[in-house]
Design brief:
By secondary structure, this protein is an alpha+beta fold. It contains 11 helices and 16 strands. Strand 6 and strand 7 form a beta hairpin. The longest helix is centred in the middle third of the chain and has 25 residues. It is found in: Cell envelope.
Amino acid sequence: MMAFMNATAMNISKVITITLLAFLACLSCSSTSKDDPKVTAAEPTQGGWVVTVKGSVLFPQKGKVTIQQVNESGVVWQDTVVLSAKNTFTKKVKLTEPGYYKINYYNRQIVDFILYKSNVEIIAAGNDPRGNVEIKGSPEIEIIRKVQQILQRAESSPAVAKLNEEFAAAAQAKDGAKMETLRKKYLTMVGDSVAPLLRNEPPSLGVINLLEGGQVLDRDLYIDTYVAVAEKIKKEWPNFEVGKNFVAAIEKVKALAIGQIAPEIALPDTTGQVVKLSSLRGKYVLVDFWAKWCGPCRAENPNVVEAFHKFKGKGFTVFGVSLDRNRQDWVNAIKADKLEWTHVSDLKYWNSEAAQTYSISSIPFSLLIDPQGKIIEKNLRGPALHAKLAEILKK
């Protein structure tokens, strides 16, 4: 996730954590390009393809090697891989749509990869969780590798070094407006290289994996790229569940884009009375998703309290949406943190109706909306919140 707006952060590029795929976060992977003769097409069959997965284990151990298909719910199926006397294997996998797969080597090393219409070769150490891995023949892994190279080049560039110096100075001075400007400049510097690459790629789980978390390409700055990729997937992958899921997710992202009207929230307050977000029209409102049990939320609360008292007389307020489960815990936290604004919750934890509407996957999460209910900023924290409020309420 991105966490640029920590005022103690001294390095704008180091504050970003990018999760491409689990194996790219901790392993050194390589793959051949789509034009490499080693990329071979899978065998078409009725209703799908048969993909050949070849592999070599450099340091075989006692135990089993298994191949698994996985999704967000866990393991879909698995099968044992039998090694030859030369510690190689060949496995035929029948697919009806693209999918995420893993090979588990003796419970010592797990390699993640993607299967679609190309045969794949995997060379792995097999004896160490961080052992070397080479994946050949996968266009999906190739696009991820290309983006990783863009990020690595940006990280070591003189331009980013200069941004780091400016960001450090702004953070030291607690200049929230400057920090926000530098944050967007960094995201644009990276995004302007990544976005055209992803827009021109054919539909693939590699592209989906890079986009679906919003870590690599900022959703608000590059919403047009997200929409373009979703439209391409909708057209070319109309029957694939992975494609349908991505398209549905981007529809939600579009609804929450900057400039859109914030979806209605109508939940009980601490007395049980249902309060609507729209009842606060006419004011600038910080919609703040939080919970008693959320440490980072509680740490940010003093900053929000300060902003509330500083700007409440100028047409600003806060609408707190709690993901708590216990009413008393919720009420006690409100009192302890002196949160003197409207609070609502259905006490359904992550299953909160508002959390589902806003696709909340982590908290704290906030949106700043204008008097007409339009979203104008997201996740303003620390000095950045004060700077933005001072800018829009200066009249």
